Amino acid sequence: MEHQHTIAQIFKHTLKGSLLLAFTFIFSCASISQELSTDNRKAGKLFEEGQALYQKRQLNEAKEVLNKALERDNFVEARTLLAYVYLDLMQLQNAKEQFSEAIAINANAIPNNLFFLAELELQDGEYEKAAEHFNLFLESNPQNSDQINRSNKGLEIVELALNAIENPVPFNPKNLGSAINSDKAEYFPSLTVDGNTLLFTRRLPLESSPIGYNEDFFVAQKDESGEWLKAQNIGQPINTVNNEGAPSFSADGNMLIFTACELYGDYGGNRKGYGSCDLFITFKKEANNWARPQNLGNTINSNHWETQPSFSADGKTLYFVRGKRDRSGQQNGNIYVSKLNEEGRWSTPEALSNTINTQGNEESVFIHPDGKTLYFSSDGHLGLGGLDIFMSQKDSSGKWSEPKNLGYPINTHKNENSLLVSPNGELAYFASDREEGYGDLDLYSFELPQEFKPNPVSYFAGKIYDKSNQQPLAARFELIDLSSGELVIESYSNLNGEFLMALPFGKDYALNVSKSGYLFYSDNFSMKKTNDNQAFRKNVPLSPIKVGEKIVLNNIFFETAKYKLKNESKVELDKLVQFLATNPSLKIEVSGHTDNVGSDASNLTLSKNRAKSVVDYLVEKGINSSRISSKGYGSTQPIADNNSSEGRAKNRRTEFEIIGM
Hints:
The protein is an alpha+beta fold. The protein has four domains: about 1-165, Alpha Horseshoe (Serine Threonine Protein Phosphatase 5, Tetratricopeptide repeat), CATH 1.25.40.10; about 175-450, TolB, C-terminal domain (Neuraminidase), CATH 2.120.10.30; about 455-545, Immunoglobulin-like (Sandwich); about 545-660, CATH 3.30.1330.60. About 25% of the residues lie in helices and about 30% in strands. The protein contains twelve helices and 33 strands. Strands 6, 7, 8, 9 and 10 form a five-stranded antiparallel beta sheet that branches. A hairpin with a 6-residue loop joins strand 26 (about 510-515) and strand 27. Helix 2 packs antiparallel against helix 5 (about 75-90), helix 3 (about 40-55) packs antiparallel against helix 4 (about 60-70) and helix 8 (about 125-140) packs antiparallel against helix 9 (about 145-165).
C-alpha cells in the first residue's frame, strides 16, 4: 500500500541508497580479496565464505560466518562487510558500531567507511561526529561524485542543525488526551474552520489484512467547555475493512477528501483506482451520515500514487502529493495543486514551483484556511536531517516565498511530518510516539512560534431557513471581497440548512445567500482589525418570492450625507442585477431610508436620491426601467432605535420590495 510506505517514512528514518552502497562495497571487496589485511588464513577463508553468502543475500548466514572470522582476527575487511550485513538487515545501530570498529583498526584502508559512518551518525543526530567523519572522508580524495555531494550536504546540515540547537524555538507539546488518543496509533489530523471538529486516522489491528492492520477514520467534537468528547469511528460507507488514510475536511466539515489504495480485492466501496493510491471524495448527507465515496477521477488521479490531500477553505483549491519512482527506484513525492472551475470541474493538476518542490521528497502538505500559508515536509530543502517541516507564504501575484524551516526542537534529526495549524494560527497539531503518550503514535498540540504563524482566520456559522415556515434550506452562499469584487469562498449549506465558512482577517467582505424561488440575503463583515476571538454566528432567513416581501441591501454604501454609490456597492448591485435577470417577471421598488439626524426635508431628499442612484445603476446594467421604481422615505420607517449609533446605522439603509410578479 503506497501511502502506508509514506507513513513508514514519516516515523522511521531509513538510510537512503544503502543497498546501492552495499553493492559498491562488494565490488571493492572483490578487488582487494587477494590482499586481506589479516595473516590468519582461517580468518581469511571465513571472510571469503561470508562474502559469498552476502552476495547471495543470505544475510543471517553471512553474519554468523563473519563473526567467526572476527573471533580469529579483528581485521578491517570483515568488520566492514559485517557492517553492510547489518545495514541490509536494517539493524542500523549494529552497523554503526561495526563501521566504528573498522575505522578504529585502519581509517584509511577503506575510506568509504568514513562516509557510511558519517551518514549513520547524521541520521542519529550525532552532528559533531558526523562532521568529523565527513571531513575525513573528503580528505581521502574520493572519486564518487554522489558521495562527495552527499558529504557536502551533510556538512551543511550539521552547520544548520548546530545553529538551530543553539537557538531553539519555543516548543511545549501537550497530549490531546484519552478522548482522542489510545494505545493504537493516531495520526493525520484534520480540523474544521471553527476548530470544534477533529478528524484523524487510527490504525487498528486486523489479522485478516495482509499488512496486519486496518486504518479507519475517527471523529471528535468539542463540548461547550472546549474539551474533546470521546472520538467515534466515522463508520460506513467511509470506513471499510481496508485502509483509509490522510483525510482532509472542507472548512465546514461537510465534505471529505481522503486516500485509498488498492491492496487486495474490492474495498467494500467500489474504490478501484487509476494507480496504486487515489483520492476519493464524499459528502455529508445529514447528521453523521455520509454519501458513498467516489473517485475524484482521472484529472486528479494518475497511474502513479496520489495521497495526503489538503482542501482549501475557499472551497476551490486542492493541494495533494503525487509520487513516483526515480531512476534509482527511490519513491519520492511532489506537491501538486488543482482548482475547481465555475462548472465544478477540476483543472489539470500542476506541480508547485521549484521554490517548494525539490529533487527530494515533499509530503504531508497542509494549506492553512488563510489560503496563503503552506506547511509541508521535505528532505530536499536543507534541514536537520530526514524530513523537516517548512512553511511558505504566497504573495498577491501567486508566488511562493522561500520555505522557512520551523527550527529545533520542532524539527530534529528524525522525520517530522503531518503538521496541522489551527484556523486562528495559535496551535499546531502533530503525531508523535513520545514516551509519555498512551502508546504508539499520539496526537499532540503546541503553541506555534510567532514567526511561523499564518494569517489568522475566523468563521461565520449558522443555519439557513425558510422565513415563512422555518424549514431548513440547502442554499448557496458566497463570500466576496468588497474592495476587489473577488469571490473568496463559494459553498452550500447542508440539508439541515447548516453552514460554516472561513473569514480571513484583513479585508471587508460581503456575504450573499441565494436559492431559487427566494429573495437573496446579504450581510457584511469588516475583518480589517485582527481579533483572534472574533467569530460570527447568525441564522439566515430567506423569504419566498412573493408580492410584499422585502429585504435590506446590506452592502449598498454611500458617503455620509451623499448619494453617490461607493465602489464597494457594486458587489451587491451586481447580485441584484443577476437576481432580476433570473426572474424576468418581477417588478420591484427600491427604497431609501435615513436615521433622524438632520431635518426631515433633507433626509427625505437624501433618501430619494440614494434610491434613484440604485435604480440608475440597474438600468445602466440592462434592467428595463419599467420593472423598477424608486422612493425615498427619509426617517419615517425606522427598524431600530435612533437613540444609539448602532440603531441609527441600521436605519440608514436601502431596501427593495417585490411589487409585481
